[in-house]
Specification:
Length: about 200
């Protein structure tokens, strides 16, 4: 479980294609400090498992499913990526509950620079539209953000200077793909409200 508060801008060092998967080597001096084999690290919002560590680089295996359904398939050596270690039970929940399970990929449609922030408009995949609401939470490339305005096929977010400086959202522009994870609470609420009542037994 993560919070969407990015700890470090990392870098893809090497990508080794493995047929139906790939092995990524990612530089992240901060997040590897206490990492061990089997630890989880979110990379652009995708929860990956550490399979090897060497100096300030960790290695993770990525299935074809993840490459196809996230923006990780579009990365290449030199690409910058957002990195976050899992939240600990004693930590403050600075963002919102993030699973590291990407629900879809959006495209940046436009960005309007402001005096103190950028207003960014992104496409919204139709299957996710019902989970995205004005002033609700959403994760974009692993960053916990508040939706400014939601429409049927797009939504807007505001990026403060800290987010612009410390995450990939400061360097991405129109046409770039980003990973989306909607608020998991919204998905559970939907499932519960649509569930059929049990026949017989205790109520």
């Amino acid at each position: 479980m993560f919070t969407g508060i990015i700890e470090e801008l990392g870098e893809i060092v090497r990508i080794e294609p493995l047929g139906d998967s790939a092995r990524l080597e990612i530089r992240g001096p901060l997040v590897v400090q206490d990492a061990v084999h089997g630890a989880s690290i979110a990379v652009n919002g995708v929860c990956l498992t550490v399979v090897d560590l060497k100096d300030d680089v960790f290695t993770a295996d990525v299935m074809k499913e993840t490459l196809d359904r996230s923006s990780l398939g579009a990365t290449e050596p030199g690409s910058r990526v957002n990195l976050e270690r899992p939240v600990r039970l004693a930590d403050r929940l600075g963002g919102h509950l993030v699973q590291g399970h990407v629900d879809g990929v959006a495209t940046i449609l436009s960005r309007e620079p402001g005096e103190h922030w950028d207003l960014v408009t992104l496409s919204l995949p139709a299957p996710l539209a019902r989970y995205v609401v004005d002033k609700g939470s959403i994760t974009v490339d692993g960053v916990s953000l508040t939706v400014v305005e939601a429409a049927a096929d797009r939504f807007t977010i505001s990026l403060i200077p800290t987010t612009l400086a410390l995450t990939t959202l400061g360097i991405k522009g129109p046409g770039d793909p980003v990973n989306l994870e909607v608020d998991v609470i919204a998905k559970y609420v939907e499932r519960l409200t649509l569930a059929q009542p049990l026949s017989g037994g205790a109520r």
